Amino acid sequence: RPLTIEEIKEIMKSWQLAAEIAANAGYDAIEVHGHVGYIIDQFLTPLWNKREDEYGGSDENRARFALEILQAIKRGAGNDMPVIYRISMDHRIPGGRTLEDSKRLIKILGENGVDAFDVDCGCYEHPDFVYPTFYRGDACMEYVCDTAREATDKPILNSGNHTPQTAKHLID
């Protein structure tokens, strides 16, 4: 069942408190895991988000939950706390988020408080990329980086079996 508005508000209070705790503990940044089908990803993706209220439908409405989390983090930790957002750029399943969908979402998120993006691919319906093993090869998620770079000038992080050589290649 969809979360109620009251439940969403409680979740935002929890994010604010967690951000406050992180700031008080001396953390340097907060990373939001909005990928692989977790709850934030469910709001962002039409495959899972069938809501007909202000949290469903358009890209902007589906991003509302994530944007409210960003606001809660800033309230709890302050505007100077860097926020990294992890996003599955390509769910790799029929009806899942595509690279073009992700490009639009990165623009929205980047304009609203995200300081860097940690990009990957896959979801739990296609777990081979969620926890890639060596058979996927070096830098198996490199292909999502170019799309992310097209959408934002924010720093891009990327996981996926990097050797020192492939990591250097991506930096260059």
Characteristic key phrases:
172 residues; alpha/beta; TIM Barrel; 6 helices; 4 strands; 13% strand; globular; NADH:flavin oxidoreductase/NADH oxidase; Aldolase_TIM; OxRdtase_FMN_N
Describe it for me?
The chain is of the alpha/beta class and 172 residues long. The chain has one domain: TIM Barrel. 43% of the residues lie in helices and 13% in strands. The chain has a four-stranded parallel beta sheet with strand order 1-2-3-4. Strand 3 (116-121), helix 5 (143-151) and strand 4 form a beta-alpha-beta unit. Helix 1 packs parallel to helix 3.
N-to-C CA distance:
46 Å
Strand/helix succession: HEHHEHEHEH
Question: What do we call the CATH homologous superfamily?
Answer: Aldolase class I
- What's the rounded overall pLDDT mean? 88
Low-pLDDT sequence parts: none
Main sheet properties: 4 strands, parallel
| Percent of sequence in beta strands | 5-15%
Q: Which bin fits the share of residues in helices?
A: 40-55%
CATH class equals Alpha Beta
What is the count of helical runs? 6
Strand order of the largest sheet: 1-2-3-4
- Shape annotation: globular
How many structural domains? 1
Count of beta strands: 4
Task: Return the CATH topology.
Answer: TIM Barrel
Radius of gyration computed on alpha carbons: 16 Å
